[in-house]
């Protein structure tokens, strides 16, 4: 889902799967 931490991770260049 869309969490600030997950979004920050993919915004940082995390194209994998961040910490949900």
Summarize the structure.
By secondary structure, this protein is mostly helical. 45% of the residues lie in helices and 0% in strands.
Properties at a glance:
mainly alpha, flat, 20 residues, 1 helix
Describe this structure in words.
There is one protein chain. The chain is an all-alpha fold and 20 residues long. It has one helix and no strands. The longest helix is centred in the middle third of the chain and has 9 residues, at 4-12. The protein is flat, with a radius of gyration of 7 Å. The mean pLDDT is 70.
As residue ranges, the low-confidence spans are none
Radius of gyration: 7 Å
Inertia-based shape = flat
- Average of pLDDT: 70
Helix content bin: 40-55%
End-to-end CA span: 8 Å
Structural class: mainly alpha
> What is the number of strand segments?
0
**Largest sheet features:** none
Beta-strand content bin:
under 5%
Helical region count? 1
List the helices and strands and how they pair.
Layout: H1 4-12
């Amino acid at each position: 889902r869309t969490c600030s931490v997950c979004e920050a991770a993919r915004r940082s260049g995390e194209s994998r799967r961040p910490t949900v």
